[in-house]
Amino acid sequence: MARFLRPSIPSVTFRRPPAQSTNRVITSLRSGFSRISLAGLAVAILWCGASLAEDPTPPKNIDDAKEQLKKAGQLFKDKKFGESSALVEACTRAFVPMVLDSDKKNLPEWERIHKQLLKASEALSIEGAEFSPLPEWSEIATMVRNAKSDKGKPQTTPSAPTPSASTPPKSDPNVVSFAKDVAPWIVASCGRCHVDKESGGFQMANYEQLMKGSKAGAVLFAGDPDGSQLLSVIETGTMPPNGSKVAPENLAKLKQWIQQGAKFDGEDPKASLKTLAGNGNPTMPANDKPVDVKQSTGKETVSFANDIAPILVANCNGCHYGGTRPSGGFAFNNFTGLLKGGTSGPALDPGKGDDSLIVKKLLGTAGQRMPAGGRPALNDEQIKLVKTWIDEGATYDGDSRESQLESVIAKSWAAKASHSELMAKRMERAKSRWQRVAPKSTPDEASDDEFHIVGNIGEGGAKQLLAQANNAAKNLKKQLKISPKDPLIKGGITIYALKSRYDYSELGNMLEKRSLPPEWSGHWRKDVLDLYIAMVYDKSDSKLNETSLLQQLTSVWVASHEGVPKWFADGAGRNAMANAVGQNDARVQPWFRRFPEVLQDLKTIKPLTDGKMNDEDEAIIGFGLIRNMQVSEMKKQYDLVLKNLASGTKFDDAFTKSLGPVDVFLTRSLGKGK
To answer: 99 in helix, strand or coil?
Structure first.
């Protein structure tokens, strides 16, 4: 392979650092000074400017806050993100105390400022900044109401009682235990925001902090449930903010505990609530055996993808699906998680619906009925579907058992949808997602039964790019021997067309939440409902657009087949580009030069096979591998892999038939071990 890949001088990409402390910024600049370009150094200095200066003075009142946010907005426009972030952070930290000290008539104005703060922090977070948590407005409003109503009450913060003086008689069944009855559900319901960290100026990592209260004052008063703000925000549903209400029995225990004097019955009031509740390291089921997933036979009357997954996603979202702290240690973001179960053991027993814990929970015959958090119970028909599915063996009719359930649902729907139905759905989502990129603009669009152009290149530009996309697709279909009457990909392809490299970068930031490599001017993404190409449009060079589209269309077509790794799809696209324009093209030459460097840094094939390499290096390796096939006796085998993919063969099978097992091929071709 070295005979056609030429070495080059290593290139270094400077990545903008997030807002950091002065010492960390200076250290990072010193350690990398010899490698950073002057432009990169300028950006770094711009970013750390706010850190090198004194911290901004926190605002003291509503006028100060308005002025500070106005100044932060101007700094943001001037791309002085570090200084802008410092002002927003100062305002965020001072916000709750300012509101509590302000006149109640100013609440509408404070609410507007609250929204501005959220928008500012969101915009700056994309640029790498981090901010202190800002409470929801409803939580702050509750604080204000309680603060105003408690003016006549003594505001002294209760001190944490000593264990010896406050331990309640354990023999009395009517006495609520803080350690056994209160701490466990506080950790489960409030842990992520107020035990693990400080949110809204309030942290209760231990009993002493709980009794100390928030920056605004005490949150509970021993013997006075009605005057305790903590109880009030839970009763009204303000907290927890994710809609998962505290169970009535736990709320009753909290009220009774406060009424009995809010006493501590542990050994150390400074001990973590997690330790006190026995939740420092939640015990997971002692089941290290691989999960036995039974594939659907096609004879079942209930489908997991069509019937069960939609019920789970709709009713269990936040607690067991998509949450960061799954209730009861039971997380089923994918099918494997559903079979594993949680701290109570397996949730289902295939073949035995009535005996399965999940069915008992849905019926309310095994402890608290699910779904919890005030959500309505499943109807009889839904519970019957779950029970029947388990009775029939709890089989799986999705693709990968590790796929997110929403993806399983979408793929099942897409498989049954027509080309036009799937394309309509993709077009609808593309228009919606464009609002993230340019929320105040109406996109320029053009479409046919194969492509949907969305961008900011003008109506004429969109129509021209549509024609260029069809020319590129025509050439690709000819190479792949696809009928010109058939769509290249079922459901069509969205093309996000951007008029500048800056706009293209913004799409990466806003839509994909990542920084796109600086050498890119186009890329692809594949999901069931979000299959698209993003590219910088050159209005003066149609051939450049067509060849760029040829690269991306080849990659996305290859990737649309089952099991294709990203390195192979990217390599196929870059190889198609090199065939079309020649290896002396300015876009292709860097790929040849870069390959030896990436290969040298690669110690084993594991980062490649596990998808752990960065996107550009992974694509470079893929290009080198496939390009080598093109200039050797392996060209026929490579073409056969594509032919087998087109016929519906899975990637591993298609590759093995032509070139042998993938791992063996990679170790032999790259000269690296596993």
So the answer is: helix
Do 272 and 313 lie in one domain? The reply is: no
Q: Are residues 425 and 436 in the same domain?
A: yes
- For residue 395, the one-letter residue type is T
Q: What are phi and psi of 501, to 5 degrees?
A: -65, -35
Same domain, 580 and 536: no
Beta strand pairing call for 451-455 and 444-447? antiparallel
Quick one: how far is CA 424 from the chain centroid? 25
Beta pairing partners, 444: 455
Write out pLDDT tens, residues 615-626: 999 999 999 999
Residues of 344-367 as b/e, b for ≥16 C-beta within 10 angstroms? eebbbbbeebeebbbbbbbbeeee
Which residues, 6 or more positions from 148, have their beta carbon under 8 angstroms from its beta carbon?
A: 104
Q: How far apart are CA 227 and CA 250, in angstroms?
A: 18
Q: Which residues of 377-412 are buried (b: 16+ CB within 10 A; e: fewer)?
A: ebeeebbebbbebbbbebbbbbeebebbbbbbbbbb
Q: What is the pLDDT of residue 16?
A: 36
Q: Distance between CA atoms of 82 and 47, rounded to whole angstroms? A: 5
Q: What is the pTM of this model?
A: 0.57
Beta strands 522-525 and 444-447, pairing class:
unpaired
Same domain, 122 and 40: yes
The token duo for 306 is 């069509």
Structure confidence at residue 551 (pLDDT): 97
Q: In this structure, what CATH number is given to the domain that contains residue 473?
A: 3.40.30.160
Other Cβ atoms less than 10 A from the Cβ of 125: the count is 14
Q: What's residue 147's pLDDT?
A: 64
What integer best gives the mean pLDDT of the chain?
81
Number of domains in the chain: 5
Q: Length of the chain, please?
A: 674
Residue 491 lies in a domain: yes
d(C-alpha 602, C-alpha 608), whole Å:
9
Distance between first and last Cα of the chain: 20
Tokens of 286: 């002692």
Q: Tokens 């990637």 — which residue? A: 651
Residues 225 and 337 occupy one common structural domain:
no
Which contiguous run of DSSP H or E holds residue 350? none
447 in Cβ contact with 466 (< 8 Å): yes
DSSP secondary structure code for residue 225 in this structure: G
Same domain, 431 and 550: yes
Tell me: do 566 and 628 sit in the same domain.
yes
DSSP 365-425: -SSS-SS-TTPPPPPHHHHHHHHHHHHTT--B-SS-TTS-HHHHHHHHHHHHS-HHHHHHH
Whether residue 297 is contained in a domain is answered as no
3-state secondary structure of 584: coil
